[in-house]
C-alpha cells in the first residue's frame, strides 16, 4: 500500500526539467540555471528498461518480494485454520493476545509419534462411487501418513483394508516392520468397485483386524475414508457402536458432498470435532495429513467394555455390558414417531433397540418383539411387523421391518398388537415433541386401556422440546419415564431400559 502511494506521489510531483516544475519559484529557477548547466533540449530522460530487467539486484528484489507475499498469504489463511482445527484456538472465547502461546506450538508438528506404541488400521473406500484416480489419491494420502509414523514392532504398527461390496485385506497389522516394505506393499492395491459396505468393514476390523496383535498397552486406531452413504445405514451404526465398545478409536474422513453426516457422526469416536473430518474433495486430503497425524499420535489405549456374561448383575446391566432375562415370557412393542423425528434420528432409536435386544437372554424365556412407526418413517421392503421372534439371530435380522401408522393410532396399534399375548407385556414410546391437546387426550386414553390390559407403558423423553408432564402422564407408573438430552445420547439409556425390562414380573 505504501509503495503504491509513493509511486502515485512520484508521478504527480516529479518533472523532467526545472522549467516544467510549477512548484519552483522564479528566484529558485534562476539560481538553478546560474549554478547548474543543463540542456533543456533533452527534456525526457531515457529509462534503461532492458538493463533494469536483467539486473541481478532487481531480480533478487522480485524474488524477495514474492517470498514475503507467500509468507503473508500463509499467515492470513493457513495458520489461522491450523490454529483453530489442530491447536483448538478459539478467538471468540480466548481473545487475540492469548493466541501467542498457540502460535508458539506451530513448530511442534511431530515428524514421528515419538516412538509411542500404537496399532493403526487404514480402511479405504473402494466402491464404484469413487474413480480410479481418486482411489489412488486415497493410497497416496495413506502412504504419506505412514511416512510420518515411527514404524516398528515396539512402536507404530499399521494395517490396511479396502472395502466395497466386500472387505479386501491388504496388510495385516504388524505384518511388516519397516516403512519400505509397507509402502511397497501398498503400491499394488487393486481398485474394487461395487457397493459401499461400511458395516462389513467395521465388522472386519473389530473381529479380525486387531485380534492378532491385541495388547492393553497399545491404542487401537481405525482411520476410515469414505465418499458416500453406506448401503446399510442401520447395520453400519450398530457395527460402529460395537467397534467403539471394543476399545477401538475411530477417525472417519468424509470426502465430498454425498456423505451422510449423521452416519459419520455415528461412526466416529466422540468428541466429533476431534475424530470426524469433512473435506470437499480428494485433492484436499493432503491438507489434513499433519492434523490427522498429530491427533493419531495423541490417542491413548481405551479399555474395552467387559464381555457379556450370562448372569443378572444389577451393576453390570445398568452400567456395563451385562445380560439379563425376564422372569416370564415377554412381548415387547416399540412405538417410534418417525414422522416427527425424521429418519436420521430414528436410526439412533433402532441402534438402541438392537443393542437392548442383543443383551436379552432369549435362551431362558420366549420373547417376541414388535416395532411400529408413524408415517413417513423408516420402512422395509415388505412393510410388515417384527412378529414373534424367539431367537437372537432372527431378531437381529428383523429389526429393520416396520409398519406405518399415524401418531394418533400408534399407541392403539401397539396395545392391540400385544394385549392378547401371554406373559409380561411391555410397550415403549419414544417422544421428543409436545403433543396437542387432542393428541394427548387420545394418547392418555390409550394408555389407560393399556393399563387395563396389564401392559407396562414406558416413555422415553428426548430433548428439551417435549412436555414432561404429558410424557409422565402417558406412563402406567411414574418411574416408567426416562429422559435423555438428545438422540446422540440415547445410548445412555440402554442399561436403565434393559434393567427395567428384566425387573418386571
UniProtKB/TrEMBL annotation:
Spans traversing the lipid bilayer: 57-83
Gene3D superfamilies (UniProt xref): MFS general substrate transporter like domains (1.20.1250.20), von Willebrand factor, type A domain (3.40.50.410)
Keyword Membrane in annotation: yes
SUPFAM superfamilies referenced in this protein's UniProt entry, alphabetically: MFS general substrate transporter, vWA-like
Keyword list, A-Z: Membrane, Transmembrane, Transmembrane helix
Domain of life: Eukaryota
InterPro entries the UniProt entry points to: ECM_Assembly_Org (IPR050525), MFS_trans_sf (IPR036259), VWF_A (IPR002035), vWFA_dom_sf (IPR036465)
UniProt keyword Transmembrane, yes or no: yes
Domain (VWFA): residue spans on this chain: 119-292
Pfam families: VWA
Identification of the protein by name: VWFA domain-containing protein
Organism of provenance: Mytilus galloprovincialis
